[in-house]
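Lab channel / #folding
Pinned by the channel admin:
"Please post every new chain as: sequence first, then the structure tokens as a reply. Keep commentary short and put observations after the output so the thread stays searchable."

First post following the new format, from NK:
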Amino acid sequence: MTSVEGAVSKATAPPQLPRRLGTSGLVAHYVTSVMGAGVLLIPSLAWAEAGPLSLVAWALLILYSYPFALIFATLSVRHPTSKGVAQFVEAAFGARAGRVAAVFLLITLLAGNPVLGLAAGRYLLAAVDPTASNRAALLAGAAVIVFCVVLNLCGIKVSTRAQLLVLGAVVLLLVLVICLALPEADYTRLQPFAPHGWSALGSTVLICFFGFIGWENAAPVAEEVRDPARTFPKGILYAVTCVGVLYFAMAFTVSVALPEAPAGQSDLTAFVRLLEVATGSGLQSVGYLVAGILLLLTTNAWCLGTSRVVFALARDGILPTSLSKLSRGLVPTRAVLALLPGYAVSVVLLLVTDSSESTLIKASSATYLLIFLMAFLSAARLLPRGRTARLNLAVITVTVGILPFFGVSVVIALAMLLVSVGAERWLRKRVPHPPRQEY
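Reply from TO:
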């Protein structure tokens, strides 16, 4: 190849993200993608639903989470690109199915991700003004989202380093709270074990399930992971162990040490009340601050993952190709900035209607489950026979079994899927589609 041909080839090659993420960074990204509501809010909600029986729900989902995360990690090793789930679907079912999955994934992420930043803002504002209005909390959440977008403009190395440092401090504090609260425990609260009947286990599993959404967020950063074949298996093992131990420890502590909430007190106060039990003093502002920081980390991780999906879809011609351009520091700056108008739609709708972020949770919860199901069905075609393939079949069975319990959210998810099919058809007819590239 002549030097001229080499220069032309380099100029026309699709942009590639550099591999800068090691094991520690991947673990930080995994853990912060998942951990948030799972340690702050859900344990108390699960306890209210089923009492001590909620511990069984936690144990079942912790066991479920390892094959769940392992399948995503295995697919990411085999298809290490920023398209995430859409790439898995394309490899298994063809280009058109992959494009539909890509549009559906993007709509889901842009509609649902603001929940994390808005909840973080609500907690952080409560540390300063517990009586702030809902709209003030939404504006604080919008500021958190903007902050995370700006942080991601610094690049994945800076972003994950900040994640790792702050996450370490927060986890140490959570462990300290658990250790100080357990001596105040009342173990008679574990009897009767199923005060609302064993039938409450099903609804409790659905509540706890929200604490495990996020394992799939590591797939879009696979293109930036150093030595994926070695890094992903280690990262997933460390991350699942950390999250599982911390989740069950917090759930058990809530079961035996958290006092009942006073009438009319919001769910935001669960971790704050546990902190008061642990320290023997009213540290309400500190509790809100810790909770807000943890959710801010989760928001930052999801901004990172979603920006990589935008970048990959632009590189493939599904979105405007200008969004796939890299800065001099090899950061997909335009894809990161594109999150702001994408997230603004949900935030503005909530501000106009004076609704809380819980509205988005109810509306988008089943869409995430459909995304998981797409990945698992793709894995059924892509993975060779063996232990992981058998685990995948079990995960498919469990996921299909859970789906009907999401009620109206399933209808919304199916409607969004139909919109994605129509949008893919429109894009296919009107947007030039470049030849498929292998990465």
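NK: Residues 3-11 have pLDDT under 50 and may be disordered.
TO: also worth noting, DSSP finds 19 helices and no strands in the chain.
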